[in-house]
Amino acid sequence: MFLGEFRHSLDDKSRLALPARFRARLEVGLVMTTGSDKCLLVYPMDEFTVLFEKVSALPVMGHESSTLRRMLFTNAHDAVPDKQNRVVVPQKLREFAQITNEVVVVGVGKFVELWNPAEWDRARDEVREHAARKDVWAGLGI
């Protein structure tokens, strides 16, 4: 599981040092892609393969499935961390998430999100406000 929030900086070659707690799970490879929010999603290769199979099984002609497929796959970048446990965050993905130097690395269970700090602060506040509503969890069956 990926849990917690970490603040890191990209180096001058746009490499992100992975948090120590996440390294073992990502060392064999990962896939980085865009999310539905202004963040990047980072999946261990095996988890992305499961997602890939599910999305690939969706109808080819449906608008929602086509949009999801394009969002996830056309922006995907696979990588293997280097010996210092760093991965390059490609320019196209940095631009999407408005990541320049500082990065918030957030563990959200089976995958990781990468955020611009200001966007993360906004999203975190939204989560707190949303979570305060008792009906939210009941609607999810939790």
Q: How would you characterize the overall build of this protein?
A:
The structure is a single chain. The protein is an alpha+beta fold. It has helices spanning 20-26, 45-56, 63-73, 91-97, 117-131, 134-139, and strands spanning 2-9, 15-17, 30-34, 40-44, 77-79, 86-88, 102-109, 112-115. It has one domain (2-116): Transcriptional regulator MraZ domain (Chemotaxis protein chec, 3-Layer(aba) Sandwich). It has six helices and eight strands, in the order ββαββααββαββαα. The strands form two sheets. Strands 1-7-8-4-3-5 form a six-stranded antiparallel beta sheet, sandwiched between helices. Strands 2-6 form a two-stranded antiparallel sheet. β3 and β4 (40-44) form a beta hairpin. The relative contact order is 0.23. The mean pLDDT is 91.
